Amino acid sequence: MADQAFVTLATNDNYSKGAMVLGKSLRNHKTSRKLVALIGPHVTEPAREVLRKIYDEVRLVDVLDSGDTAHLALMKRPDLGVTFTKLHCWTLTHYSKCVFMDADTLALANVDELFDREELSAAPDPGWPDCFNSGVFVFRPSNETYGKLIQRCTENGSFDGGDQGVLNSFFSNWATQDIAKHLPFIYNLSSIAIYSYLPAFKQYGGDAKVVHFLGKMKPWNYSYDAKSRTVKGDSQDQSTLHPSYLLQWWDIYSSVVLPLMKEHYGNQPF
Amino acid sequence: MADQAFVTLATNDNYSKGAMVLGKSLRNHKTSRKLVALIGPHVTEPAREVLRKIYDEVRLVDVLDSGDTAHLALMKRPDLGVTFTKLHCWTLTHYSKCVFMDADTLALANVDELFDREELSAAPDPGWPDCFNSGVFVFRPSNETYGKLIQRCTENGSFDGGDQGVLNSFFSNWATQDIAKHLPFIYNLSSIAIYSYLPAFKQYGGDAKVVHFLGKMKPWNYSYDAKSRTVKGDSQDQSTLHPSYLLQWWDIYSSVVLPLMKEHYGNQPF
Ligand SMILES: O=c1ccn([C@@H]2O[C@H](COP(=O)(O)OP(=O)(O)O)[C@@H](O)[C@H]2O)c(=O)[nH]1
Ligand SMILES: O=c1ccn([C@@H]2O[C@H](COP(=O)(O)OP(=O)(O)O)[C@@H](O)[C@H]2O)c(=O)[nH]1
Ligand SMILES: [Mn+2]
Ligand SMILES: [Mn+2]
Predict the structure, then answer these.
(1) Could you report the predicted ipTM of this complex, rounded to two decimals?
(2) What is the pTM of this model?
């Protein structure tokens, strides 16, 4: 399956940490597919080195920014304009099919079966469930599609200022056309869903395959005590309700990623 | 279409107010279907009188309670055990097809097209979007199905302590089997979705057909100033973000329902 790949994106060193853990989690679960990281020019050289250790391909792309502060303000996420950069994934035409995964996702199991699905397959967004969440999706690289997507961004912008708005407008029949394009929610389990319907999480959460640390507070924003194996963060933050996923992230980060980073960053802080 | 009906449920006078407004909203939008209200024994006589003015059929059912305080506590909704009573709707076998609507829903348009759908059609729940929300669903009355549902309740209980848990376990392939059974989210627009993904609400909310005042705070818990046409409530409550739906509810309540109630309750408080 050399012509199929998991793809992620990191425009800076913080999201690169996420990409490193994600890549490692896919390897741990013995994926048979290639791993590709798209990076922006601000990712520093040592971070690129580490990414190259984990990913088969690390590709530099230019940063696309919606610049749409008005819509982004509605979500209180002024930082998400750069997620337009994600659209570059359609240019990976040396692959026939790919699965995009946000850098803030973590594979809890082998998820190679996602490649059985067609473009555009994705899981529902818990905020507005007739939209798909663009943190995990199956797509077919194509310069034609890429061109159309960029054209749409230029002409219509994005209703949320980020990639999810554009992608939902473009693949606008996702909600109504084909159930096979609805990935089960356990392939993109947003941490937010855990506390918004706790009984459902207790019922179905055990089958989770990919967890998505959606929202402002990312795993790398917490601090970790390696000795006691505990994660500390803003105690107001609801994510404290899902400590086990966060611990799994930190487990990979501290045991595999951190040693690689120490090696490549040397005395530089990270 | 005399053999098709909208069905709701009220086990007490408060939810009856909701049922009255819902029934009126369906009539205002000129539904061609029958209207049925299932009521519990605690609904007082004057409330029954008012319901009879609005509904074609007001049917007394006994209250079924899950008694499952443990699961209900997970949702902080100890009151929802009685929603098992909803299952009685399957006994309405003098209708060939029905649409159940929670008493806390409001029709914003004619929604008779829902009868084109098959059992069990429902919209995704924003909390866990591979579950359907049981506030609006299409079903076929059947004593056989009713029997199986009750059996399931007795044997397995409900993963959330309420009707939604049982119904999702029973119609367990809803998420994966047939896209036609996924009602568009605008047929069960939970007020909670408005603030959880505001840009999507701004993009798609204008097409809303049914709003669902899901959660603890119901329209009848607010207070209304008829002169200034403003609604007052717990200012901490997020529902203050969707004042226009709340105003539409109160508009019907104060202009149509309240006069009927005054007539039938006389000097009794309500
Ligand atoms: O400054 C940024 C913001 C986002 N991203 C990428 O875009 C994705 C989507 O952003 P994010 O995960 O923060 O959005 P959320 O899932 O919280 O809505 C991230 O996972 C990264 O892959 C990035 O590289 N740099
Ligand atoms: O004490 C109650 C609680 C609920 N219900 C009925 O069960 C439905 C579901 O409960 P609710 O709407 O409160 O649940 P939510 O939609 O907030 O989860 C209500 O709309 C009513 O039709 C009722 O009659 N009496
Ligand atoms: Mn993300
Ligand atoms: Mn309800």
Answers:
(1) 0.94
(2) 0.95
